[in-house]
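> @MW can you paste both from yesterday?
MW: sure, first one:
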Amino acid sequence: MKLALLTYNMAAEWDLDTLLDKCVELGFEGVEFRTDRDHAHGVEVGISEAQIDTIKSKCEDAGVAIAGLSSGQAFDHVDLDALEASVHHTRALLDLCAALDAGGVKVFGNNLHVDEGVPAEQTIEQIGQALSDLGEYAEGLGVQVRFEMHGDFTSAEDCNTIMDLAGADESDGICLIYNCNPQDVDESGSVAGSYRAVAERVCHVHMHDLADPEFPYLELLTMLAEDGFDGWCSAELQDSPDRERVLRFYVALWDAYTKLAGA
């Protein structure tokens, strides 16, 4: 398992040089760039080949891996033109991902639209079809489209249905991001049921506050270690006026938990 810093909220205002300096200083092995939000790092669809080469060389020189791209693209749109635009933009993100050797692009389903008269099954099928098309495209590029368990799509049952519809078991281009949602925790305080139900499809993990007593991060990391998970766990954190202190504490907790987990 490897620890990356996701630039959503925390680190959004750091330019690339500052971001890489902080990753090295604070102990993050990788960075997951949040796109579609004009963050200071500048990693966005439309940058030039020269800019891509500069980003790659700076990351390589710093010894910080690119753990992935995190997008705001969702495939639940009722408006089919909006759906087509999101799929089109995701293809461009997958192209950028491949050019950066970034591994994969995070997307999500986001919302059900039952209150707008759209059956849940219809939205789930639509998301599965979009992922099927994108997974084939991603596989051809040697990268992944990574579906985050997020919004109205946090249940293992729904996410497995979407993965089935997308043909995830027959493709190296589609997988799940386990998102450490509060909904994953059962009455006993465990996430074993939630995680085990999707474990074979998980390629990436988004973690939040490791010090949160309501989420059993040590249990999750122990299960990941037992499964031989060797992917990225990205820290997705709210911003803080004392970023360095918070991130240093985060890395210390990660080191302690992974040691206890036997990772």
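MW: second:
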Amino acid sequence: MPVEIKPIQLPADVNAFINVWFDLYGSNPNWVAPLKFERRDFLNPNKNPYFKLANIQCFIAWKDGKAVGTISAQVDKGYQSVEANVGFFGFFEFTDDEEVARGLIEAARDWLRGQGMARMMGPFNFNTNHECGLLVDAFDQDPLVLMTYNLPYYPAMYETLGLTKAKDLYAYWLENNGPVPERIGKLADRFMEKHPEITIRSFNLKKFESEVAIAKDIYNDAWADNWGFVKLTDEEFQKVAEGLRPMIDPRYCYVVERNGVPIAFSLTLPDYNQVVKPMKGSIFPFGWWHWLTMPKKINQIRVFVLGVRREFQYLAIGAPLYKRTWDNGREAGVKGAECSWILEDNFRMRGALEKMGAKIYKTYRLYGGDL
């Protein structure tokens, strides 16, 4: 039977959309199944403020009466001021069948053309503020928290479909097997001695709302000039922050102040994928036990965000932040940290990481194509 691509309605068809992924990845040892309740919430237009900022259509591919793939197509209204007439695709999952993959990507292309787009780019679930990028190597390793994973045949299929590289995103690995590298330690200490007006404090979970407001203000300023960046609205940032709240550990989350005024912040997350993986997508019947008991066993972290207001980006603020994260992680028994993702042409950040001994160990790729 031929492949049939059907548009779906959210949230009515969300379970059918999500269940396709579990069928595709069920036996893969490195896939970390998302928590179904969280994905249902994320894909619900009534609960996710992103749906107010984008036009979105999702599709499911059917073959021989079985759901065999998914894709989303979205026009991010905020991104139109960055790069006009460029639409996004995401949640692109498919069996190892060109007919299925081609049917899905053509459905997304047709829909985006109908929205007046001239080019498509992805995968974005839904934009750069969410999970994005196609893993093109290291398929034998689990993803860390909030990073993507896909089956090994995906990159070749993307190329078969005529999609070409738009940008690579790197994940660096930093082994925490001793004291912070001497060079970084000295730079951090020298920086703090030279700048007594600068202080670093831990994120205060008891003042969550005010701390989130500080983080949002810095985030939207620090990343304003970055490739592909889309500014987060207050409502969006609050939604993201609430999702991250259970994972925030003040030992790895800091606010930098200059004469009492916040100018930078960093957020490193314990790798909650180590907790989520054995839950297999569900709190019940035993997932809750893993959620309650596993956090103490987490032994790796992900440097998620490190942002400095553009006005102060000439300062070497990263050094003391890395040092503090390193020291606290070592004390907690953390074996290593992933720093991700880093744009391939962000040579300043890449240079800083490589001076610390970090190495690229995974590559994620964004693809584009004319419509």
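> thanks! The first strand starts at residue 4 and ends at 7.
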